[in-house]
Design a protein that fits this description.
single chain, about 300 residues, mainly alpha, 3-stranded antiparallel β-sheet, 5 helices, about 50% helix
Length: about 300
């Protein structure tokens, strides 16, 4: 095997790295990769379970040595694959005066169309007798013309598919734009309903606060009355606790003051504790689920309109 070149593309077999020639004929497998015929023979032999290829091996599939894509092996083995004459013609070793392996004194100047291989003049009267043949140069020229035509056809098809790709991208962008528009409309509707719900909430809370203020006022008045009364009682209690009786006259005077204080408290009626008046109730609005959907809006076909 030759040393691996800087690039395995071009005129070299990607398996053995040898340069393609009339001996190492380049063959194109269905996935588009090209290998020399000897490497394909070894490759097919390995994927046939080690049995040597016959002239009419059973049809089977094997993975491409490069991309591993399953490919169908033609009847007749690697010779049945199409010859890559473009690489054969560009190869520096593809000379019409290469000597034939079967007839060493004869140069291989002919190409057997049936067997898809380069042969010599003597081969036409032996193994390839009765096969249609032409010169290598003529066949390479013909093959180049076919490749040129195929290239033009493929470029035309690629232009059509590129146009389709551009159209798909435009449709996808249009779809994205319409989705964004619908999303914005739906979000705007939801935001508007949220604002309306918030306004209803504020109105209800303001009503609750008004009711609270009305109920709180008598509570505050009673709290003030209780606070004043307790303060007065503490002062009176302090007076009673600190009074010292040193003289009879003081005793009478003090007794009269205490009696007056106690009479005032005893005659004062204890207020009733506060009570909350009639309590309002929050009545939840009865709206069916389907009614909410109609209120919010629904998505219709293009012929209809979206009601908000």
């Amino acid at each position: 095997m030759a040393a691996k070149p800087e690039s395995t593309s071009g005129n070299h077999c990607p398996v053995c790295f040898e340069t393609f020639s009339t001996h190492l004929v380049p063959k194109i497998v269905p996935c588009g990769h090209t290998f020399c015929i000897e490497c394909l023979e070894l490759w097919l032999l390995r994927h046939q379970g080690g049995h040597k290829l016959g002239k009419n091996p059973q049809t089977y599939r094997a993975p491409c040595p490069t991309c591993k894509r399953p490919i169908s092996v033609p009847t007749g083995g690697p010779k049945g694959f199409t010859t890559n004459f473009a690489l054969l013609g560009n190869s520096s070793t593809a000379r019409t005066n290469d000597l034939c392996g079967t007839h060493p004194s004869e140069a291989k100047k002919l190409f057997c169309i049936k067997c898809q291989m380069v042969i010599c003049q003597e081969c036409l009267f032996g193994e390839h007798q009765g096969h249609q043949a032409t010169t290598v140069k003529m066949f390479c020229d013909q093959f180049s013309g076919v490749m040129k035509t195929n290239e033009e056809k493929l470029n035309t098809k690629m232009a059509e598919w590129n146009g389709l790709s551009s159209t798909i991208e435009e449709v996808e962008q249009d779809l994205s734009r319409k989705v964004n528009q619908l999303t914005e409309s739906i979000d705007a509707r939801a935001e508007k309903l949220h604002r309306q719900i918030d306004e209803c909430r504020e109105e209800c809370l303001m009503a609750v606060d008004d009711w609270r203020c009305n109920e709180q006022q008598p509570i505050n008045d009673l709290k003030d009355n209780v606070h004043i009364t307790l303060t007065s009682m503490r002062i009176s209690l302090d007076f009673i606790q600190k009074t010292e009786l040193t003289e009879a006259v003081h005793m009478n005077q003090t007794s009269a003051q205490v009696k007056e204080i106690m009479t005032g408290y005893q005659n004062e009626t204890l207020p009733l504790p506060p009570q909350i008046g009639r309590e309002p109730k929050f009545v939840v609005g009865k709206v069916a689920t389907e009614s909410i959907g109609k209120l919010f809006g629904t998505l219709h076909e293009a012929d209809d309109t979206m009601e908000f």
